[in-house]
Structure formats: structure tokens, C-alpha cells
Amino acid sequence: MSDRVMFLLESSQPTIDWGRLSRGRNLVRLHNFKMLTGAIDTGMRDLGIEVTHVILDGSASAEQFLALLCELSTDFRGDVLWLSADGSGFLSGVTTGDGRVLYRVTPDDVGFYITASLVNPNVAGAFSLHGTGTFH
């Protein structure tokens, strides 16, 4: 897979200014939680896209977040970040040998994660994204 994409599902009042951060990045905005799992599967399987991050910024309940984690294909190796209204949240990632893990993150942790993963692609383990798209 050569194309890398980040999916964003944001509420009407997101905790992060995605308009500023999404410039020059391959960010796909989804406006419907129900289509998220299908979009991930379709992107990976049919379009050959590497989905690197899924971010739920105030747009899903904790139950929906957990349901999404249960529905993800084992082929999905990206991170899933759920943000609450206060800027804290949960981050799920894949580790070698242990499968998917879940971490509680503070607003400071989220800031570091966003900076390291999305804003500064030169950080070890981070990547560069290009372009912006939207699924409706």
C-alpha cells in the first residue's frame, strides 16, 4: 500500500482545529459514524490505501468507540483516537505480539500525539500525509 490516509470524524465543535492541521495532508473527513468501518475496510481492501489514523473528535460516544474497536478488521494496523469534550480521551494502537491495546490519554498526551504524528512528520515513527478528501 502506497497511499496513507487519516480518517477524521469530528463533531460540530471539535477540540482540535483540524482546518489548520489538515492543510497538505491526506485527511478524509467522514460525516457519519455508521460509514466509518466500511470506509476503513473499503480503503484498505478495495483501494489499497493504508489507513494510519482514525480520529473521533467529540463525534462518538464511548460505547461507539468501543464498538468500532470490536468491529475493526485484524488487518487494520492504524491508531484509533477518541477525544472527549475536555480534550482527554483514549488511544488504541497495535503492538507486536499483543494485538490491539488501549491507553487513557490526557489533553497533554493528545497534544504530543498530534504534534508527533501529524504536525511534525520528521519525528521517528511519524509520517507525512498529502491532500484532503471528504466522504459523505
Task: Give the domain tally.
Answer: 1
- Provide mean pLDDT, rounded: 75
The structure class reads: alpha/beta
Overall number of strands: 7
Helical content band:
25-40%
What does it look like?
A seven-stranded mixed sheet has the order 6-5-4-3-1-2-7. The radius of gyration is 14 Å and the shape is globular. It has one domain (3-135). A hairpin with a 5-residue loop joins strand 4 and strand 5. The model is unreliable at 122-136 (pLDDT under 50). The chain has helices at residues 18-21, 36-45, 62-71, 107-119, and strands spanning 3-10, 27-30, 49-57, 79-83, 89-95, 99-105, 132-135. With 136 residues, the protein is α/β, with parallel strands linked by helices. It has four helices and seven strands. 27% of the residues lie in helices and 32% in strands. The two termini are 24 Å apart.
Please supply descriptive tags for the structure shown above.
alpha/beta, 7 strands
SSE layout and pairing:
Layout lengths: L2 E8 L7 H4 L5 E4 L5 H10 L3 E9 L4 H10 L7 E5 L5 E7 L3 E7 L1 H13 L12 E4 L1
Can I get a quick summary?
The chain has helices spanning about 20, 35-45, 60-70, 105-120, and strands at about 5-10, 25-30, 50-55, 80-85, 90-95, 100-105, 130-135.
